[in-house]
Amino acid sequence: MAAANGNGSSGKGFEVPRVEVRFTKLFVNGQFVDAVSGKTFETRDPRTGEVIANIAEGDKADVDLAVKAAREAFDNGPWPRMSGYERGRILHKFADLIEEHVEELAMLDTVDAGKLFAVGRAHDIPGAAHLLRYYAGAADKIHGETLKMAQRMHGYTLKEPVGVVGHIVPWNYPTTMFFFKVSPALAAGCAVVVKPAEQTPLSALFYAHLAKKAGLPDGVLNVVPGFGPTAGAAVAAHMDVDKLSFTGSTEVGRLVMKAAAESNLKPVSLELGGKSPFIVFDDADIDMAVNLANFAAYTNKGEICVAGTRIYVQEGIYDAFVKKAAEVARKSVVGDPFNPRVNQGPQVDKDQYEKVLKYIDIGKREGATLVTGGKACGDKGYYIEPTIFTDVKDDMAIAQDEIFGPVMALMKFKTVEEVIQKANNTRYGLAAGIVTKNIDIANTMSRSIRAGSIWINCYFAFDPDAPFGGYKMSGFGKDMGMDGLEKYLQTKTVVTPLYNTPWL
Q1: Which of 271, 303, 385, 402 does the annotation list as catalytic?
Q2: How far apart are CA 114 and CA 205, in angstroms?
Q3: What pLDDT, on a 0 to 100 scale, did the predictor assign at position 7?
Q4: Phi-psi label, residue 381: left if phi above 0, alpha if psi -120 to 50, beta otherwise
Q5: Residue among 276, 316, 271 at smallest CA distance from 292
Q6: Is pLDDT above 70 for 1?
Q7: 271 is catalytic
Q8: Which of 34, 107, 254, 488 could form a disulfide linkage to 188, CB 3.0–4.6 angstroms apart?
Q9: CA angle, 480 as apex, 491 and 63 as ends, to 5°?
């Protein structure tokens, strides 16, 4: 297993690019500005633990200024009063600029979040532009309907932007999550205040720069880096924020919802934790199933809310599956995410790294069998080996808690009925994977599992047109698809009397 090489040299036969950080200040009302307090905080490179840059630290005073700018832009500015076609043209220009800076943006997410550079360049950044274009195309297709009323009244509905939206964005997919939220809100005509995760502020600030360059009016997009208990809490509790969208942990989601309720009862959408089941039936092609399970559990070093880390394998192929899964995990190359040979980069920061290692220790103490992995690797940075446990019981912490790291829990089952019960034995309900050649089993499972996304013989099958969101304690409200646009709109009913009309 390759050790991390984060020293900026060619080391193992690849060149680590020199990454320039151009934007480190808050973006408020179309300008990059210092925090009111003058404070800054460090953002660190998880490959080495070294400081990348000092970022302006926003808090309540800065959130107040950002919300004031957004409020003015929404109440009196041109953005919500433009035609959808005009908004769409600016969003398409924004997407053009993202595509012109794919390499630089992918580098920022690599040094800030430890994400694989090749994946960011090929998928994350182009995917953000794609999603922006999807909603740019929807901006001029927002309309209500004519009502067929039972009395002599003419009624119709209007779809109007909800107003000023607060977005609190997680650190695991800094670019993807930014555009999950910002794209539909802007297309709807809202003004937004984004609080990026303190671990990964760099790309969000770059996107603010590109939005201004694309022609987004001042105040429509504001970015306030800072910490959850200060900047995030100020966004959640602000009396002039009309709508809140949060992606992150279930624990913080509770606090966000409480703050929204105790302030101005702003509506909230939450995309929270997950502990997704990945279910393999006896009829599956084992090699395909193992590779898909590896993909489901270890993508983005397990730092993904829909990670399929509860692996249920039917008893007829269980032993063969365990053997092959261990072989695949052992071949995985852990190291510098700029290295094209690497499969897995570092955890995002020291706290997350230590949390994952703690769960691995808990798994051992609970009596699960460690088949492979389970250790830190590399002489610096936050790298952890792909880890597999067997003999896992459903009530173990490693089977119930969201670890957010490269830890796979393997379990055996006999029947369809049994695995449905096991799959649903969780407080979460974000996603599930099913591997089978039997269409009847696939249909039964997809309708029986209580989760927002069911992927059959595939995984991470995200698409701009496919709504994404959870059941149960994984939250509520959808990102992507037209459902993702609807949550930034509100419906107004307009009724006028009809006189001497020949028909109703």
Answers
A1: 271
A2: 18
A3: 35
A4: left
A5: 276
A6: no
A7: yes
A8: 488
A9: 75
C-alpha to C-alpha distance for 51 and 73, rounded to whole angstroms:
35
Could you tell me whether strands 164-168 and 243-247 are parallel, antiparallel, or unpaired per DSSP bridges?
Answer: parallel
Nearest to 344 by CA among 330, 359, 334: 334
CA torsion 143-144-148-150 (nearest 10°) is -160
Q: Under a CB-based contact definition with an 8 Å cutoff, are residues 204 and 178 in contact?
A: yes
Quote the CA–CA distance of 62 and 172 in Å, as a whole number.
Answer: 24
Is the predicted pLDDT of residue 2 greater than 50, yes or no? no
Q: CB–CB of 406/302 below 8 Å?
A: yes
Largest Cα span, the chain: 85
In SS3 terms, 96-125 reads as HHHHHCHHHHHHHHHHHHCCCHHHHHHHHH
* Torsion sign (Cα): 91, 92, 98, 100: negative
Q: What is the DSSP letter of 276?
A: -
Strand residues in 151-284 grouped as ranges (E): 153-161, 164-168, 191-195, 221-223, 243-247, 268-271, 277-280
Using one digit for the tens of pLDDT, what is the confidence trace for 302-315? 999 999 999 999 99
> 349-396, pLDDT tens digit by residue?
999 999 999 999 999 999 999 999 999 998 899 999 999 999 999 999
CB of 77 closer than 8 Å to CB of 121: no
Segment 46-65 mean pLDDT = 97
pLDDT at 12: 59
| Residue 89 pLDDT greater than 90, yes or no | yes
Cα–Cα dist 460/468, whole Å: 11
Q: Could you tell me the two tokens for 404?
A: 């957010």
CA distance linking residue 474 with residue 404, whole number of Å: 14
